[in-house]
Amino acid sequence: GENVEQHPSTLSVQEGDSAVIKCTYSDSASNYFPWYKQELGKGPQLIIDIRSNVGEKKDQRIAVTLNKTAKHFSLHITETQPEDSAVYFCAAAAFSGTYKYIFGTGTRLKVLA
Amino acid sequence: DGGITQSPKYLFRKEGQNVTLSCEQNLNHDAMYWYRQDPGQGLRLIYYSQIVNDFQKGDIAEGYSVSREKKESFPLTVTSAQKNPTAFYLCASSDRTNEKLFFGSGTQLSVL
User: Which of B63, B105, B55 is nearest to B84 (CA)?
Assistant: First the structure.
């Protein structure tokens, strides 16, 4: 079946450094790629998303890039802060009557003060 | 305060017992979803509903049931047929034509 691979599963960075999380998807019909941040015991929160007709999108310290040819997209967080520590999930979605999401397995990011 | 409300936050199930997880949204969204989250795994779709009185099975529907009698509500019942129910359950909603998916705060279900 279709899947989304996400790497790394854990990532530790020093405060102020950058963090990069990578995802690869298999369904070529996917045209929407959101990223979610999940804090302990809470539901995922949408932090940034990108559509397949765009190669890059930036929102303050967060950016997402998409390479449709390689079926690859990445989350970039610059100037990391301790409050960025959380689990981050990528997803790839394709529309078929409604959007169907395939989620990555998550990356636990730790920002060390 | 708009959003998705899940209750309870923690739930315990005894052997052979059915339990129901509540999900209510006031976002006026047509579509609602139930996902299961296990440690180290991605979210897996249990059931979804695009409109009132209609719902479809997701990838792991066995041992679960749902209803959609009102637009705002999409309760999930974990039946005794679900042999491994311990997980974090997430409800989500979206406008049917909008790709953005919004999540509730989740319910942690454990077996006694």
Answer: B63
Phi, psi of A66 (to 5 degrees): -135, 130
Q: What counts of helices (H) and strands (E) characterise chain B? A: 0, 11
Chain A: nearest CA to B62, how far in angstroms? 18
Residues from chain A contacting residue B40 (CB–CB below 8 Å): 9, 105-106
Q: Which of B45, B48, B99 sits opposite A32 (nearest CB)?
A: B99
Task: Give the tens place of pLDDT for each residue, A44-53.
Answer: 999 999 999 8
**What pLDDT, on a 0 to 100 scale, did the predictor assign at position A1?**
76
List pLDDT tens digits, range B64-84: 999 999 999 999 999 999 989
- Judged by a CB distance cut-off of 8 A, whether residue A20 touches chain B is no
Chain A: residue nearest B95 by CA?
A98
For residues A98 and A87, the model is more confident at A87
Alpha carbons A35 and B52: distance in angstroms, whole number = 28
Split at pLDDT 50, 70, 90, the class of A96 is confident
Q: Residue B41: count other Cβ atoms within 10 Å of its Cβ.
A: 13
* B99 contacts A95? CB cut-off 8 A: yes
Chain B hits for A6, Cβ within 8 Å: 42
Core vs surface per residue A29-46: b (16+ CB within 10 A) or e: ebbbbbbbbbeeeebbee
